[in-house]
Amino acid sequence: MGYGTLLSQGADVDFMIHGVFSYQLFGQTLWITTTHVCALIVMLIIIGFCIAANRMLKYATEVPGGFQNVVELLVEKLDGMVSGVMGKQAVRFRNYVGTLFFFIFLSNISGLFGLRPPTADYGVTFALALMTFTLIRFNELKYQKLSGVLKGLCDPWPIWAPINIIGNLAVPISLSLRLFANILSGTAIMALIYTLLGKIALIWPAALHVYFDIFSGAIQTYVFCMLTMTYIADACGDGEP
User: Fold this and answer.
1) How far, in Å, CA of 35 to CA of 123, rounded?
2) Alpha-helix runs per DSSP H in the chain
3) pLDDT by residue (tens digit) across 123-132?
4) How many CA atoms lie within 13 A of 215 on its CB side?
5) Which helix (H) or strand (E) holds 33?
6) What tens digit of pLDDT does each residue of 28-37 get?
7) pLDDT tens readout for residues 190-236
8) CA 199, 36, 191: angle at the middle one, nearest 5?
9) Residue 60's pLDDT is what?
10) Inter-residue contact 212 to 190 (CB < 8 Å)
11) Rounded Cα–Cα distance for residues 169 and 179 (Å)
């Protein structure tokens, strides 16, 4: 594994999957890869933005301007999106959905800045989907109780229970694969274009970046968050927040 390069790649094509450094854990060699580094950068950007927004709130004015206007607009739009889907449950999950939205969107567009999108790694998207899956199952037990969950699995007949169980277990897989496949395909296509065209690919691939990184990235962010809100709201039912 020369120079810490992970996974098999073509002779000249660089998909930006590299090992940064390795360490030993329980006798196994584990790698910190470009995915971990890029995910950390995205997290630091979000944390920095939140710290700046928090400091701004201490000196907020009645007539917003500049950065305050941007923050209020983002919060208002996100609150409107969550409230429109989750109703009275929105107050409990808007922070989670908002964090999910910003992390996925910034990860998706990070390719514009020469980074490898963390969401092009299945380990990242599956972890995000597992968090949503955990919230779904937790709220099912909280609001529907065990008896309601078992009744739902046997609806409309008990013979449907195995199919309903498989359907429930498929949620994190479908959520993670949808996001992963779309972002990875865009990353792979752009890597092939830059490799095959070389110095010719200077300006015109920007149009492809607009589609793969911004347009497709925004759509996949919205789809993931919308499905997350729908699944959780369905699990909560008519329960009081």
Assistant:
1) 9
2) 34-58, 67-86, 90-109, 122-153, 161-197, 205-209, 216-236
3) 999 999 999 9
4) 8
5) strand 28-33
6) 888 888 889 9
7) 778 777 776 666 666 667 777 777 888 899 999 999 999 999 999 98
8) 20
9) 74
10) yes
11) 17
> Which residues have C-beta within 8 Å of that of residue 55, sequence separation ≥ 6?
none
DSSP per-residue codes, 180-214: HHHHHHHHHHHHHHHHHHGGG-SSTHHHHHIIIII
From the list 183, 7, 9, the residue with the least C-alpha distance to 112 is: 183
Both tokens of 19, joined, read 């090992």
User: 237: Cβ–Cβ under 8 A, 6 or more apart, which residues?
Assistant: 143, 144
Q: How far is CA 16 from CA 1, 8, 35, in A?
A: 15, 12, 9
C-alpha angle 211-215-218 in degrees, rounded to nearest 5 = 145
What is the token pair recorded at 157? Answer: 């007949």
Amino acid in position 226: M
Q: Is 30 helix (H, G, I), strand (E, B) or coil?
A: strand
Alpha-carbon distance of 42 to 104, in angstroms, equals 9
Q: Are strands 19-25 and 28-33 parallel, antiparallel or unpaired?
A: antiparallel
Q: 112: which 2 tokens? A: 């514009």
Whose structure tokens read 């990353």? 187
Q: Report the DSSP beta bridge partners of residue 22.
A: 31
Whether the CB-CB separation of 37 and 45 falls below 8 Å is answered with no
What pTM value is reported for the model?
0.85
Which residue reads 């920095």 in tokens?
Answer: 48
